Amino acid sequence: xxxxxxxxxxxxxxxxxxxxxxxxxxxxxxxxxxxxxxxxxxxxxxxxxxxxxxxxxxxxxxxxxxxxxxxxxxxxxxxxxxxxxxxxxxxxxxxxxxxxxxxxxxxxxxxxxxxxxxxxxxxxxxxxxxxxxxxxxxxxxxxxxxxxxxxxxxxxxxxxxxxxxxxxxxxxxxxxxxxxxxxxxxxxxxxxxxxxxxxxxxxxxxxxxxxxxxxxxxxxxxxxxxxxxxxxxxxxxxxxxxxxxxxxxxxxxxxxxxxxxxxxxxxxxxxxxxxxxxxxxxxxxxxxxxxxxxxxxxxxxxxxxxxxxxxxxxxxxxxxxxxxxxxxxxxxxxxxxxxxxxxxxxxxxxxxxxxxxxxxxxxxxxxxxxxxxxxxxxxxxxxxxxxxxxxxxxxxxxxxxxxxxxxxxxxxxxxxxxxxxxxxxxxxxxxxxxxxxxxxxxxxxxxxxxxxxxxxxxxxxxxxxxxxxxxxxxxxx
Length: 477
Prior knowledge:
The protein has helices spanning about 35-50, 60-75, 75-90, 90-115, 155-165, 180-190, 210-215, 230-235, 265-275, 290-305, 325-340, 370-375, 390-400, 415-425, 455-465; strands at about 1-5, 15-20, 25-35, 120, 130-140, 145, 170-175, 200, 220-225, 245-250, 255, 285-290, 345-350, 355, 360, 360-365, 380-390, 405, 405-410, 430, 445-450, 450, 465-475. The chain is α/β, with parallel strands linked by helices. It has 2 domains: about 1-250 and about 450-470, Aldehyde Dehydrogenase, Chain A, domain 1, CATH 3.40.605.10; about 255-430, Aldehyde Dehydrogenase, Chain A, domain 2 (3-Layer(aba) Sandwich). The strands form 6 sheets. A 7-stranded mixed sheet has the order 13-16-17-12-11-19-20, sandwiched between helices. Strands 8-7-6-9-10-22 form a 6-stranded mixed sheet, with helices on both faces. Strands 1-3-2 form a 3-stranded mixed sheet, with no helix packed on it. Helix 6 links the parallel strand 7 and strand 8 (about 200).
C-alpha cells in the first residue's frame, strides 16, 4: 500500500519510504517522500490560509470538525490500534490505551475551544487608566509545523495537530520515519470530518536537510518538536526570528525509594514505569536510588517481576514488552549494558537480545555514575538500582545530569515526600507513583536539556494562540 503526501495539488514525490514492522521486519506500506518543491508548496498553502483572515475557521466550525472526528476515530479505533502496534511495536494492550487517550485528547481540544476566552484588564483605577475599558481576545498564532516521534504514533499526533486545529492554526506535520502511517490515517480522519485539506497537511521528507528547510522557514509561526535533544536544539538554533517553539526531549528519570517505602506497592509501579513500551518513553523509570536497608530486596523483587514479563510479538494480547524500534537500538542497548557490567554493575536479570528485535527486561545494580546507563537516556528496557545511605546525597546524585523532566519518590512519610519534592530538579515529582504517569490535561515540561515550553493539550493550545489586547477610551466610561 502506498500513502501519498497530504498536500493540496501535490508535486511528484522524490522517492518512497518503506515502513517496516520492528518485530518481524515485514514491509507494511510505503510513504511518498516530499522534496524541496513540495515543502515550499506546503508552506505557501499554510501561509495563504492564515493570511486570508476572512477565511479563518470559526469556533463553531472547529468544534464541528473535532466532534465529527471523534465519531470517525471511534469507528476506526481497533483498525488504527492494530496499525500503530504493527508499525511502532508497542504491545497491543498498551496501544489500545494509547488510542483511548487519543480519543480523549480530541475531547480535550473541544473543551479548550469552549473554555478558551480572554479576560478583562483592570482600567479606571488611576488617573492614567481613567475612561478606559480593556480586555484580551485570542487569535491563532499562525502556521504551525510539527515534527513528531515514533513512540506514541497516535497520541503524540493528537497532541500536536489537535491543539492547532482547536486554536485555528494551519498545521503541517512531519511524522517520525519509523511510524508515519498512524499520522496519515489521523490526518485523513480530520479531513473526512470537514477540515479543509490546506489547514492540515502531512508529509515525509527524504533527509534532515529538507526537513530543516520546513522547520526554519520564516513563514512558520510555531514549531513543535518531539524527539532527541540533539536534533531538537539544533533545529531550534535554525528557526527564523519570531518563530516560537516547544521542544520535548528525554528525561533519564530518577526515583527515590526511601527506607520506609511500601515495596508491595512500589515494585509493580516501577516495573510498569521502567519496561512499558520496552522503555522507549521519555519519562521512563531509569535510575532508582534506594535506601541501602532495602535496596537489595527491591532489586531482587524488580528482577523477579521483570523476568515474569512476556516478551515478544506486540500483536499478541499477552505480550508485556515488545520490540525496540530498530535493530540498531538493540545493539546499542546491549553495548551499554555490557559496558556497565564490565565496569562493576551487577546484572540481576535480562541483559540479552531476544527474538523479534526485542531486548529482555534488565535490572542492573549500582553501575558507575559515568556509565552510559547512568548518565544517558537508555530508551530501552533497562532499570538501574543504586543504594544510598543519606537522602540529601541521593537527591544530589539524582540532580547531577543536564536532563530534568519527571522524578518520583516512594515513602510513607509526608516530611520525606516534601523534602524530595523540594530537592529534586524536575518539572513534576510523583509521590508513590512511577515517573511515566501522565494524563493529557496536565502540564508536561522538560527542563534543562530535556526541552522547552510546556506540553499537555490545554497548554499547547494556549501556546498556539496570541492574546490580543483591545483598549477602549470613552467619555461614557
